[in-house]
Amino acid sequence: MKSFLRVWQGWRIVMPVIVINALVQAALLVPGVLPYLTIPFILIALVGLLVMVASLVLVAAAMLQAVAGAVDADGVLSTLKERFWLVLLWALGLVLVVTLGLSLFVLPGLIVLALTPFVLLAVIDGQRNPISTNFAVIRARWGSWLLTIIVIAAASLVLWFFSALNGFFVTGAPAALIGWLVLGFASSWFISRWAFIYRQVVPLGTGAKYTDG
User: Fold this and answer.
1) Other beta carbons less than 10 A from residue 98's beta carbon
2) Which of 45, 69, 80, 124 is the most buried if burial means most Cβ atoms within 10 Å?
């Protein structure tokens, strides 16, 4: 409940970001470009990816501030400018590893997801070694980490079911708009929960100075 309430401390940033991201992602479907390896599709996919990562950085930066106190919009925007490309590289790396795990067998991919919830937060927070920081947080708050994994897994099943219904009954850009709005609000809660746990171990302002122990 605390982490849920934290979302609303950053509402000035989180809610507009969710809406703008949903509108952009839905608008990208309007041209009706088919998902084949063509230049138009590649450009649309690239724009969608960049907007999604930018949204992630803005929401996560806001949540990392919100769980520690007031949210500074200028600080959030500065984080986006300073760490956007680094977050993009780390996100692509994680997606590659998770995809590899899922392609070999579903369980390895899910394990990677479960074991790396704080990596991108650490990157956004300016940690020198995001992987080390990630596991330091898990070790220090393993109970909260495990409980959150269970809750998010259950919520993800509900979201998957909703997505299937939404895609079947609505379809097209309207379905994308609804889906991205729901996903945006749900993801914001997920991020706020991870940020709440993260900040219990890594205080605000430690940046790259933080080391395990």
Assistant:
1) 17
2) 124
Helix ranges (DSSP H) in the chain: 2-9, 11-27, 39-66, 73-104, 106-115, 119-124, 130-140, 142-169, 172-201
Tokens for 198, please give them: 């993260």
pLDDT tens readout for residues 126-141: 999 999 999 999 999 9
Amino acid identity of residue 193, one-letter, is R
d(Cα 108, Cα 22) in Å, to the nearest integer?
30
CB neighbours (10 Å) of residue 79?
22
Token pair of 80 as six digits: 């986006």
Average pLDDT over residues 36-62: 93
Yes or no: say if 148 and 191 are a contact pair by the CB < 8 Å rule: no
- At 199, the amino acid letter reads R
Do the Cβ atoms of 66 and 6 come closer than 8 Å?
A: yes
CA gap 43, 34 in Å, rounded: 12
Residue carrying structure tokens 């590659």: 96
CA distance 121 to 134: 8
What confidence score (pLDDT) does residue 58 get? 96
| Distance of alpha carbon 36 from alpha carbon 205, whole angstroms | 45
